[in-house]
Write a sequence for this structure.
């Protein structure tokens, strides 16, 4: 089980040192992402930038959209079974197509909403990021957690631990703001 630690770093140079020290501690780029409005600076300093799953609410939107579409399809099927609008019962294949269509349509609509929305877990730090700070997301396995927290407290006290999450991608997990 991975945990995600959110550190707020004040400058690009400090974020670079944080990144380098986390790499020295054995953390791979895959487990370290920085959210910033200065993408060019991150690229120039060779700091692993965040991805769309971290900055947009795409995964959460598609999940909720799919659930809503599925529930609506079940309601529609229930109404079709009860009222038989065509004068005869529909086949199971038609019911399956209805479920599939509404679920996929919900996923599509939820994805459109998600692409247009900031990730709800990043939103509490929106003003800091817009002010030029850097949100460092560190994904750590259970056995790495204490070592990472200790190293960050000792070497980078200016980068504050602002939140933790049991796992970033889960759209329904609660962000624990420190």
């Amino acid at each position: 089980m991975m945990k995600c630690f959110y550190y707020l770093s004040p400058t690009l140079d400090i974020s670079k040192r944080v990144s380098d020290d986390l790499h020295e501690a054995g953390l791979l780029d895959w487990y370290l992402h920085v959210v910033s409005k200065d993408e060019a600076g991150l690229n120039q300093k060779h700091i692993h930038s965040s991805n769309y799953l971290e900055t947009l609410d795409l995964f959460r939107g598609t999940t909720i959209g799919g659930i809503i579409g599925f529930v609506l399809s079940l309601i529609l099927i229930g109404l079709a079974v009860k009222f038989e609008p065509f004068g005869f019962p529909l086949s199971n294949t038609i019911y399956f197509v209805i479920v599939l269509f509404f679920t996929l349509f919900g996923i599509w609509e939820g994805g459109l909403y998600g692409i247009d929305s900031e990730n709800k877990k990043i939103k509490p730090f929106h003003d800091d990021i817009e002010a030029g700070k850097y949100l460092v997301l560190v994904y750590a396995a259970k056995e790495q957690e204490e070592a990472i927290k200790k190293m960050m407290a000792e070497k980078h006290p200016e980068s504050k631990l602002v939140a933790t999450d049991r796992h970033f991608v889960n759209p329904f997990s609660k962000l624990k703001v420190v």
